[in-house]
Design brief:
The chain is of the alpha/beta class and 404 residues long. It is 37% helix and 9% strand. A hairpin with a 5-residue loop joins strand 5 and strand 6. The protein is globular, with a radius of gyration of 26 Å.
Length: 404
């Protein structure tokens, strides 16, 4: 081959890059020239984000976020949020159940959750794993020990605008044989049912507005970033904001997307009909890192390590590092799903550590937000959280409704 026939690599790269660049520019221009369909072209959020990149749609809009959750700039407000996050972690630890594949078999990553052999009882045919079991059940109290898996270790609590805990709920997918019984959606449905108790019409009356309007001041605290279903339900319910303790990497930040793309909803007008305040059309999604919750990063890191370790174990065919191995060794589960991670000792340790902080002293005990009548101080919020836990410990069965 002569030198004239040889390809000049530098010229080839430059020419190819120019062609690719021109093609990309043409595609970008074509995309930018695509117009919103009729009807959608009147929706302000879509107009604003239509020609932007995906990361701009996914990341929180700072302007709106500062408006809708500006109070997060206050350390006392962050402490207030952490109180309910610690309560949630304590509740999850109390009702912990990692028996995703049943109480028998082997869970190599749950060795601390094996039921101890009882010396004064009948011999156990094989090792058994603890589920939602009370350490020292009081025979005088009618409480049930469960080792049946009733749902994932994902839960949420609802707190009203004054700082009082309304209720809590768990994910009950397995209990109801449904993939839609997520904690947040169950909680929102219960919030509406609590406004529909058959009693005097004066019960729970809020002058000048429907009872359901009170949800616009409700904050949900959930252990896992909300999925599309729960984000949608919260949006329809008008829930103010949701604080989540851990990322769900399979949820694609859908809560952020809904928040950014949702129209603002007027909530107050002056005598001339002008809007003087509004609320987001979707719950404000607040990762617990924004309130300085240490467990947020710890849970995310442990989850990523769990997924990486399981993939490596599967590649090596190392069942001693699997999530679950059946008693007859015929089934080995290497699936690195987050619901499996939330059965492990490492996850439970983090939740237990966070729950124990409910007993820690406060830095801003006398602070209240907003500073209005009937709003609890941080110290009163902490007392409320501790009392609610005591109540739930007795009455709040994980797999069945507790009394109102």
């Amino acid at each position: 081959m002569s030198d004239q026939d040889k390809v000049n690599r530098r010229d080839f790269i430059v020419t190819t890059a120019s062609i690719a660049g021109a093609a990309t520019a043409g595609a970008t221009t074509a995309l930018a020239q695509t117009k919103l369909p009729e009807g959608f072209d009147a929706q302000k959020p879509l107009i604003e984000y239509w020609d932007k990149r995906l990361n701009e749609v996914v990341e929180l809009n700072k302007i709106n976020f500062d408006k809708d959750a500006r109070e997060l700039q206050q350390e006392a407000v962050k402490e207030r949020h952490r109180i309910y996050c610690h309560l949630l972690m304590k509740l999850i630890t109390r009702f912990w159940n990692g028996n995703k594949r049943g109480p028998f078999g082997s869970y190599p990553l749950r060795t601390a959750q094996v039921e101890p052999i009882q010396s004064n009882g009948p011999p156990q045919p094989t090792q058994r794993y603890r589920g939602d079991m009370i350490t020292d059940p009081d025979p005088a109290v009618s409480r049930v020990n469960w080792d049946r898996y009733l749902g994932h270790n994902i839960a949420c609590i609802a707190v009203d605008g004054n700082g009082e805990v309304i209720d809590f709920d768990f994910n009950h997918n397995d209990f109801f044989r449904s993939s839609a019984e997520h904690a947040e959606s169950r909680m929102v449905r219960r919030l509406f049912s609590l406004t529909d108790i058959f009693d005097s019409w004066k019960t729970g009356r809020v002058p000048g507005k429907p009872r359901a309007a009170s949800l616009t001041k409700v904050t949900l605290y959930t252990s896992l970033e909300s999925c599309a279903q729960c984000s949608g339900v919260m949006s329809l319910a008008g829930v103010k904001q949701v604080v989540y303790l851990q990322n769900d990497f399979t949820a694609y930040k859908v809560g952020n997307i809904m928040y950014n793309l949702a129209n603002r909803i007027p909530t107050a007008k002056d005598s001339l009909g002008n809007v003087i305040s509004d609320r987001p059309g979707a719950a404000v999604p607040i990762p617990a890192s924004m309130i300085d919750l240490d467990e947020f990063n710890a849970l995310n890191k442990a989850n990523l390590d769990f997924a990486s370790d399981l993939k490596a174990a599967e590649a090596r065919k190392d069942s001693s590092k699997a999530f679950f191995v059946s008693s007859d060794k015929t089934f080995v589960d290497y699936d690195p799903s987050i619901t499996s991670f939330l059965c492990t000792d490492s996850a439970r340790t983090i939740f237990e550590r966070g729950g124990n902080k409910l007993d820690a002293p406060l830095k801003f005990p006398n602070s209240r937000f907003p500073d209005e009548n009937n709003v609890l101080t941080n110290e009163q919020c902490l007392a409320e959280a501790r009392e609610f836990y005591k109540y739930v410990d007795v009455e709040g069965y994980r797999g069945s409704p507790h009394k109102l």
